[in-house]
Amino acid sequence: MGALAEVLSYLITTLVSFYLILVILRFLLQLARADFYNPISQFIVKATNPPLKPMRRIIPSIAGLDTASLVLALLVQAAGIALLLFISYRVIVNPTSLLIWSLLGLATAFTKLFFFTIIATIVCSWLAPQSRHPALMLLHQINEPVMAPFRRLLPSMGGLDLSPILVFMVIHVLEILIHNGAHASGMPTGIVIGLN
């Protein structure tokens, strides 16, 4: 791969990853019924509204899930994979493989996003336990639907919350399954956004 192709691959990976995270966060904001008046939420909404508004006219919500956001995330992931494959290998991938790889990449993006947001929440709870910063409030709102079931499983430990350990174990198991699925599907390494 030449220098130009490498630079293009880097730029595509960075931009697609950033926008993919925004779209996933938009989905999670609605799923968690997070505060849409939070300034960070407002940024996410404004950044994702241009493609989502027309898509919502075609793709209805199913069981309260923002399916348009999920479809947009899948399309962003697929576009990134297709561009990277074409730039790196001059290959146009068949639609079935592209769909499978996009689903695997999207699943990995979700697990990584939860992993890092939970880590950030834990660190901030130690450093600034009473902080009302908009980012921390948003992290808490996004993580709470995932953390709450695990908190109910564990007995009270006198103020010590061990539920993140269980969540991290589940995330790691899911990542093992996703990586094995990626290997079984013949996915080229370094191409799927979020799977690296």
TrEMBL record:
Keywords: Membrane, Transmembrane, Transmembrane helix. Pfam families: CCB3_YggT. InterPro entries: CCB3/YggT (IPR003425). GO terms for cellular component: membrane. The chain crosses the membrane at residues 7-29, 58-86, 98-128, 157-178. Signal peptide: none annotated. Belongs to the YggT family. This is YggT family protein. It comes from Sinobacterium caligoides.
